[in-house]
Amino acid sequence: MVDEFVDVLIVGAGLSGIGAACHLKRLCPQRSVAILESRRSLGGTWDLYRYPGIRSDSDMYTLGYSFRPWTSEKSIADGSAILQYLRDTARENGIDHKIRYGHRVRRAAWSSTDAQWRVEVERDGGEVTQLRSAFLLMCGGYYDYAQGHMPAFEGRERFQGRIVHPQQWDDDVAYAGKRVVVIGSGATAVTLVPELAKRAAHVTMLQRSPTYMISRPSVDKIATWLLRRAPLALAHGVARWKNLLLGMYIFRLCRHQPQRVKAGMIKLVQQQLTPGYDVLTHFTPRYNPWEQRLCLVPDGDLFQAIRDERVSVVTDRIKRFTETGVLLESGVELPADLIVSATGLKMTVLSGIELDVDGRRIEPAQLVNYKGIMFGGVPNFASVFGYTNASWTLKADLASTFVCRLLNHMQRTGARQCVPRADDPAMEVEPWVDFSSGYFQRALDRLPKQGSKKPWKLNQNYLADLITLRYAAVEDGVMRFSA
Hints:
Low-confidence stretches: none
CATH class of the largest domain: Alpha Beta
Radius of gyration: 23 Å
Structural class: alpha/beta
Distance between the termini: 26 Å
Shape: globular
CATH topology of the largest domain: FAD/NAD(P)-binding domain
CATH architecture of the largest domain: 3-Layer(bba) Sandwich
Strand content: 15-25%
Mean pLDDT: 92
């Protein structure tokens, strides 16, 4: 049964979905919009994760929205502050009334005859219904909310304590006064470890290999100075561009002079630890900077906890779990009352939705991206996917405004359908991203591809995308419009 029709159907009420709805309200006020959210609250990542110390891993002047300045003192913000920012943004823009909670999209089928999507939705309680939409905008993020990545550790059933993945953390996880082993060295582990160390008897960060870590103040003094002396919009804009350009400069430096940057980063880490600390073993990665995301250490809290001997770092491989801890391949056993498996994410592609275009099943791995937003051969469909080398919202903002430009162009010209067409037989396809992080590598065979030339090549550059998505003509000879 088809319940109703909406012009734009957004899937996901997290950072991307709320931002997209705000852009649509401002730039396409004549379009009806609905947001489907499978969970019972908005916020996405920032509502899902409840582990101690949850925070942003990039500054809020770029992770926050371009249209709503971040005014809190901390630029590296706590998860609760970010969630409140999202709630306030939704409420102030009237977006909270457009969200339908407990609505999980299972299948979406496009009909060129009707120029619309028929979307199958499962509500809480198991009831299945349908919606019709002229445009489908995917804002559900890129990882599985149901569970994180948990390796099959040998002997885990023998361990007498508790094993928890940060994605399933809840208030009954007891760690005060306990010996805690955190497996992992990525952003989640680097956030958790110093926070757990405040109350635990001792915390050991057990890593298979080191990660690049860079310390940064949680309060941006330049931005704070600007916010006190300049109009809010101006101060926020300057702080945003300052951090954006600085991030781009560091990324470019990492790619062009990796050994120089590597030496500099390791030296900075050494300066924050006690003399003689084995930085070569525990803080010297085997890969070049920015082949994976850098781990942010706000105010050097992890290094302080190591200096205070509340935290130990062990670099080794796990042989098996024992009744009382973790046995390493070196023969050392780490005693533990609680094991936290900060072992990464499980990626999901297009929120796990089954796609169909005119009766033809669409496999995500066969798709080729268009401008990092749409896909060849899939009409009236866009997916928001942020940068791997910068704040997610920078790309999300650009993607949403591009969709608005596209919709307005279609309204002016009377088109009901837009679809990118890859007609160049000489174009080669390449992996979606050049990124070696484990969660990407585990999902590589399921991810869409990118082309070897524009507009099919995925940019990881905000300035290039700014020109392409905000200012370049939407009629580029590749995007085809029809009534």
